[in-house]
């Protein structure tokens, strides 16, 4: 992976072609990708359970990268980032802070999904001065009802996927319906569009550790989200089995002035199923 500067290169706005880079901080080598025009406030993407750099929907990343500097990164111990996967969401948020400061940023916007949304909330509660705008998708608040049940739902769907030789995300993120199944297949195919510099998958041990961290988060005392003053966009499907959709409404109530979008007939991956509607909305929100 390269660490050289590309500020004079032509601007890449396709995630399939995004530069693969590394930065060393706190004894960890963090793997990241960047695209879009440099300068201004970057949009940093906080990724979901078990996910690597290869798990972001290019239709959403590319829409934001048309006008914004976008950065995606592997959490510690995941993909091409070194170190050991933390067993708490707070520690993951601390790692995100270490990574962002290592890149020299004083202000960022955050786009987060699922576990990434848990991490983003802990991050902004601890470092409110660093965050200008916040996007929370498929996620819920610390101590939210039934978040600790993610573990059982996840293993159940991993087994279902294994038995049918499908990607677990097809079960975890989408309904097994006439609309959900083709949306799932299309999403999984979009994740394969990048053919160069593919990332390494998370280890089983790392995956189990992340699940343990999610369980702890679900059983913890709530954070005080009433203190958040950042413009916040919250989105989900109406039937999320992983992080129940009611938790998106809970976040909306707790974060004053936040916007809420709930997509119909969709689950955890509602934003991916409805990417054609969601991508321009989130790009406009972050660009305003």
From TrEMBL:
Transmembrane segments: none annotated. Keywords: Hydrolase. It comes from the Bacteria. SUPFAM superfamilies: alpha/beta-Hydrolases (SSF53474). GO terms for molecular function: hydrolase activity. Residues 42-272 form the AB hydrolase-1 domain. InterPro entries: AB_hydrolase, AB_hydrolase_1, AB_hydrolase_fold. PANTHER family: AB HYDROLASE-1 DOMAIN-CONTAINING PROTEIN, HYDROLASE, ALPHA/BETA FOLD FAMILY PROTEIN. This is Alpha/beta hydrolase.
């Amino acid at each position: 992976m390269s660490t050289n500067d590309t500020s004079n290169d032509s601007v890449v706005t396709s995630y399939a072609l995004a530069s693969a880079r590394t930065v060393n901080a706190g004894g960890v080598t963090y793997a990241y990708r960047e695209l879009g025009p440099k300068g201004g406030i970057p949009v940093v993407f906080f990724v979901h359970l078990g996910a690597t750099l290869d798990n972001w929907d290019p239709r959403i990343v590319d829409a934001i990268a048309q006008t914004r500097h976008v950065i995606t990164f592997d959490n510690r111990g995941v993909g091409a980032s070194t170190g050991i996967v933390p067993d708490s969401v707070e520690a993951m948020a601390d790692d995100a802070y270490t990574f962002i400061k290592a890149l020299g940023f004083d202000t960022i916007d955050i786009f987060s999904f699922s576990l990434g949304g848990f991490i983003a909330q802990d991050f902004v509660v601890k470092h409110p001065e660093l965050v200008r705008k916040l996007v929370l998708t498929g996620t819920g608040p610390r101590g939210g009802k039934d978040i600790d049940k993610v573990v059982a739902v996840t293993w159940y769907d991993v087994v279902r996927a294994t038995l049918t030789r499908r990607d677990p995300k097809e079960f975890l993120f989408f309904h097994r319906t006439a609309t959900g199944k083709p949306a799932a297949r299309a999403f999984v195919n979009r994740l394969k569009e990048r053919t160069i510099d593919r990332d390494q998958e998370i280890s089983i041990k790392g995956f189990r550790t992340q699940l343990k961290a999610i369980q702890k988060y679900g059983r913890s005392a709530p954070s005080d989200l009433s203190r958040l003053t950042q413009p916040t966009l919250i989105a989900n499907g109406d039937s999320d089995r992983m992080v129940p959709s009611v938790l998106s409404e809970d976040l909306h109530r707790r974060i004053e002035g936040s916007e809420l979008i709930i997509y119909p007939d969709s689950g955890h991956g509602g934003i991916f199923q409805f990417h054609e509607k969601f991508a321009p909305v989130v790009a406009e929100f972050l660009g305003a």
